[in-house]
Design goal:
single chain, alpha/beta, 8 helices, 43% helix, globular
């Protein structure tokens, strides 16, 4: 599911990467790990980013299946990227039915601006429209990336909040 180059960069300098892989493969082991830390719930953040990371829409199915082990404790985030599915709005509906509870946008990995709908990106507008209809919050990554491919300005996130009046919008890594 991940490009080899992205995988190598993420592994770089980590002595615990075998543990990361084990926890990614076994949701019950991950839940046990959370218990040792005293963590009640965790959001599993996934998104579609084929050009930079290699994540295709199948990452959503993985996230939903993983989190279905304990939906009271594991919160599935998924993503939709216009152009990777025939109908971005229908894909959001499908994700909601799968158990995905929020949509993650990662502009620097998805190679888009989250307010491209203002320039006619109807696929992006459909994502926001269907997320709003399904009561799914939108999380927008507003920070940097180890992949250093594109900048993102936090004010783009505010245009989404204004345009669609989401009751729940999260700008993560904005500090």
């Amino acid at each position: 599911m991940m490009k080899q180059s992205a995988h190598e960069l993420m592994k770089q300098g980590r002595k615990d990467y075998a543990d990361v892989e084990r926890l990614c493969a076994d949701p019950k082991a991950f839940l046990a790990f959370l218990d040792t830390l005293g963590v009640e719930r965790a959001g599993l953040i996934n998104y579609v980013a084929p050009k930079i990371i290699g994540f295709t829409p199948e990452v959503n199915d993985w996230s939903a299946k993983y989190c279905s082990t304990a939906p009271d404790r594991l919160i599935a985030f998924g993503g939709v990227l216009p152009g990777t599915v025939p109908d971005a709005g229908a894909e959001v509906d499908r994700l909601a039915k799968l158990g995905i509870r929020a949509i993650k946008m990662h502009p620097s990995h998805q190679v888009l601006s989250p307010n491209d709908y203002m320039d006619g990106n109807r696929g992006l507008a459909a994502i926001y429209e269907r997320a709003q209809t399904n009561g799914m919050p939108i999380m927008i990554h507003t920070g940097t990336s180890i992949f250093r491919n594109r900048c993102f300005v936090t004010t783009c996130a505010s245009t989404i909040q204004i345009s669609w009046s989401f009751s729940r919008t999260v700008a993560d890594h904005s500090g």
